[in-house]
Amino acid sequence: DADKLGADGWKMFDAAIRWASRPVALLIAGVNPPTTEDQRVATELLRIGYGVSLPAAASAVDADLVARSLVVVTGQAASAHLPASLSSSPIPALVAQPGCFNSLSLTAATSGTDYGTTASQTLVSVAAPTHPLAAGLTGNVSVASSAGTVGWGKPASSATKVATIVGNANQSTIFAYDPTTLLVNGQLAPGRRVGWFGQRTMMPNLTASGWNLFDAAALWAGGWTQAPGGGHEIPPCTGLFCDNFEDADSLGWTVRQGATTDFSVVSDGSWVYRQANPSTTGWRISQAGAGWGDQV
Questions:
Q1: Residues facing residue 273 across a β-bridge
Q2: Contact 83, 60 (CB under 8 A)
Q3: What is the pLDDT of residues 14-24, one digit of tens each?
Q4: Strand partners, 174
Q5: Burial annotation 80-99 (CB, 10 A radius, 16+ → b, else e)
Q6: How far, in Å, are 45, 74, 126, 134 from residue 34 at the CA level?
Q7: Which of 159, 166, 168, 202 is the most exposed place for a label (fewest CB within 10 A)?
Q8: Residue 8 backbone phi and psi in degrees, to 5
């Protein structure tokens, strides 16, 4: 019975709920099954809290986008592997294949001018250190333990250029569009879009900083924030009624039955609203908001 669960039991319950409700990323690798390098990308997405799905074939179709919270296009994919509706879909996308940038209107169409790759690189230069995509890094950052090929693009002026090829500020290795910014086709981005540098041959050699940049890209694109206390990242709170307590307070919540002091927001890998004595039954809390009444 729930009223007999101890602290460890509730932790396991919390973990089960988080796992069952986690957002799912669609990984488009251009091959099926994915390569070892792309499997490593899938493992990292799982580590930071995403579920991962793969298209049934090498090319994804529109149906693969259903109920997905993020699309990740790896450096081995091509434009032909993308679902036709992705260019207009509000689902966020992290694109690590420069050859796909123009298909999504992230850059113009001329290879070698508007997008391309540069060989024999181990560094990227952070141009916007305060942006979440920079993962707190500054200056020239070592992203690979051995030299590899880095992808880059020249996004629209409205995009945020977070990192560039060292010595070439016009070639962005990490760039981003918010839904309020214009793509190169003059249309508003339908959802968050990130252009990212990691090519297939570089992924096995990413440093800790390199993976931190990947994590930052996947989390920012999906709209996640880092949970306090070093726990799993927590999805944003959306919908008519939602409170994930990541603001670390319980404003608006009222104890309808029981002792007010027995309820508080505490950190348990993420912020949660907890009853101090779970063995006590019959207590109720509620939240009220205009338009939807009391939620108990």
A1: 265
A2: yes
A3: 666 555 557 89
A4: 163
A5: ebbbeebbebebbbbbbbbb
A6: 14, 10, 30, 28
A7: 168
A8: -65, -35
